[in-house]
Amino acid sequence: MERRPRFVPETRPTPLQRHYIELSVVALLCGAVAITALEFGAGLDSVIVRVSVLVGGVPLALTMGDALLRVWRAAWAWMPVDRGKGLFRLTWVAAIVGLYGLLILAVWAVVSA
C-alpha cells in the first residue's frame, strides 16, 4: 500500500512572504484600534476609525492577496497528488475571495460615512 504524502513543497515563495508578519501586525493593531473605538461609541465617521481602517486596510489587502496566491499555488500543486486535498484548498481560495468582498464593503462603509 502506497502512502500519500503529507505535504507538497513550495516551489517558490510568494512576493510578500518575507514581510507577511509585519504587515499582519499592522493590520491587526489597526483593526483592534478601530473595533475598540467603535465599542466605546465612536461612529464610522470618526477620525480614529477612518484612519485605522484606511491604514490597516492596505496591509490587510496585501496579506490577503499573498495568502490567496499561496493557497492557489498549493491547490494546483496538490491536484496531481491528491485531488481531494487540492479541491479543499480551492474552497479556501473561494473563502479568501469572499473575505476580500467583505473588506471592500467595510472600507467603503467607513469612507462613505
Summary?
The chain is built from three helices and no strands. It has helices at 20-39, 47-78, 83-112.
* Overall mean pLDDT: 95
Give the number of helices. 3
Largest sheet: none
User: What structural category arises from helix and sheet content?
Assistant: mainly alpha
Radius of gyration: 18 Å
Task: Describe the fold and architecture.
With 113 residues, the protein is an all-alpha fold. The protein has one domain (18-112). The chain is built from three helices and no strands. Helix 1 packs across helix 2 (47-78) and helix 2 runs antiparallel to helix 3 (83-112).
Q: What's the helix and strand layout?
A:
Layout: H1 20-39, H2 47-78, H3 83-112
Descriptive keywords:
single chain; 113 residues; mainly alpha; 3 helices
